Amino acid sequence: MPAKICNESIVGVFSHKCNLLIPHTRLKTHANQFAQVANNDVLKDYIVNFLCTRDQSDNKNEITLIDFTFGDGNSTKAILENLEKVKIICLDRDAEAFEKAKKLAERDPRVIPVHGKFSDLPNVLKSMNYLFNSIDGIIIDVGISNTQMSSKRGFTPEVDSVLDMRMDSTGITGYQVLNAIDEVSLARVLKTYGEEKRAKKIARAIIETRYTFKKLEKTEDLNELVAVVVGTNVRIDPYRQTREHIAQKVYNGLRRFVNNELNELNYAMVIAEKYLKPHGIVVTQCHSIVEDKIVKRHLTGNVIENCANDLALKFINHNLSVDTEEMIDLTASPWSMLEKSIASDSNVKLRVAMKN
Ligand SMILES: C[S@@+](CC[C@H](N)C(=O)[O-])C[C@H]1O[C@@H](n2cnc3c(N)ncnc32)[C@H](O)[C@@H]1O
C-alpha cells in the first residue's frame, strides 16, 4: 500500500478497507507524557489523528463514524471540523445530550442523532441498514459529561441535589438503591464499581442510618454521612495535589451501578468489534481503572463468552501445561493496539486500537 503524507507530522499507510490513514509514526505509548496536558486535548488529538485523516485524493468514499457518547458534542465537533465527507451517528442515552445532537444535526446534515444506550445500538443500526463490518471508526468516551456533572441530578457531591444519578429517566435512582440494598451488596458496589477502599465501613453506616429512619435522598445527606465515617470531607490526590470530596468514589460506584455502566461498556466493546470494518479504529477514554480494565481486556483478547475476563491470575493453576499453539489461538485478539495514554498521575486512560 502506498505511503501518504497527510500533514507535516503524520505519515502512514492508507487503508482502502476503511478509508482511514493509519499513522505508523504513532505506534507508541505515551505513559506519563501527557501529565500536564488536559485530557480532552489528548482525546481530541487522537480523534483528529486517527479518525479524521484520510486520503485527500479519494473523494468518493464517505466515512461513517459512531460517537457512542455524544455528551456535550465536543468529540463530534472535532470530527466535523476536521473531516468533510463524513457521516456521524451520535448516540447518547441522556435526553438533554440527544437534544443537543438534534440541534447540531439541524445545522449540519452530517450528524445523525440517536437517543439510546450502547445496548440499543444493534437494533438502531439494523433499522438504518448498517451491517457488521460497515463502520470506519468509533469513539467511546465513558463517564459523565460536563453538563451532567453540573446538573442537579446527583452525579457529584459538589452540587446540592436529589440523588437521582440516572443518565436517562428509566430504572431505579441512586436514592432508591441506598434505601433498599443490603449491606453486603452495597459494600460490593462501592468497592468494585467505585474503587472505594472503605466500602464496608461506609456501607454499614448507610444501612445503620437507614434503620434510624433518616432517609438518604439528597447529596448533602450522603456527603455528611461519608465525611463522618471517614473523618474528613476532602481527599487530596497524592500525585496531582488536587482536592475532591471524600464521597466522590461512593458517587462513582453508585452511578455506575444505577446506570449498569460496566455491563454497557462491555457490550459497547463487543458491538465495536462486530460493526467496525477490518482496519476500522476505536478510540476510548475511561476515567477509572475499573472501566479501562474492561476496555483493555477486550483489546488484548482476554475475553470469555463476550465478557471481559475477570479471573485474577492467582486463581490460575500453574501446573497446567498448555500447548503453545493452542495458547496463541486462545489468546489471539481481534485488535491491534495503536496508541495509549496511561498517565500514572491521573485516572484518565485513553486507547486507540485497530480491528484486525
Ligand atoms: C464523558 S461524556 C462524553 C463527553 C463527550 N465526548 C463530549 O465531547 O462532550 C459520556 C456521555 O456518554 C453517555 N453515556 C454513558 N453511558 C452510555 C450508554 N450506555 N449509552 C449511551 N450513552 C451513554 C452519557 O450520558 C454522557 O453524556
- Please count the helical segments: 13
Q: What fraction of residues sit in β-strands?
A: 15-25%
Counting copies of identical and different chains, the oligomeric state is single chain
CATH architecture type of the largest domain: 3-Layer(aba) Sandwich
The CATH class label of the largest domain is Alpha Beta
Largest sheet: 8 strands, mixed
Number of domains: 2
Low-confidence stretches: 1-19, 21-37
Instruction: Give the helix proportion (percent range).
Output: 25-40%
Q: SSE string, helix = H, strand = E?
A: EEEEHEHEHEHEHHHHHEEHHEHEEHEE
Instruction: Count the E strands.
Output: 15
Mean pLDDT: 86
CATH names the topology of the largest domain as Rossmann fold
Secondary structure category: alpha/beta
Explained architecture:
It is a single chain. With 356 residues, the chain is an alpha/beta fold. Helices cover 37% and strands 21% of the residues. It has helices at residues 39-51, 74-82, 95-107, 121-127, 146-150, 174-178, 183-193, 199-211, 219-230, 248-258, 261-275, 289-299, 324-330, and strands at residues 3-5, 11-15, 20-23, 28-29, 63-67, 86-92, 111-115, 135-141, 234-236, 243-245, 276-286, 303-304, 307-308, 335-342, 349-355. Helix 8 (199-211) packs across helix 9 (219-230). It starts with a strand and ends with a strand.
What is shown here, in short?
With 356 residues, this protein is of the alpha/beta class.
Q: What's the helix and strand layout?
A:
Layout: E1 3-5, E2 11-15, E3 20-23, E4 28-29, H1 39-51, E5 63-67, H2 74-82, E6 86-92, H3 95-107, E7 111-115, H4 121-127, E8 135-141, H5 146-150, H6 174-178, H7 183-193, H8 199-211, H9 219-230, E9 234-236, E10 243-245, H10 248-258, H11 261-275, E11 276-286, H12 289-299, E12 303-304, E13 307-308, H13 324-330, E14 335-342, E15 349-355
Parallel strand pairs: 4-14, 5-6, 5-8, 6-7, 8-11
Antiparallel strand pairs: 1-2, 2-3, 9-10, 11-15, 12-13, 14-15
Helix pairs in contact: 1-2, 7-8, 7-10, 8-9, 11-12
This protein binds S-adenosylmethionine.
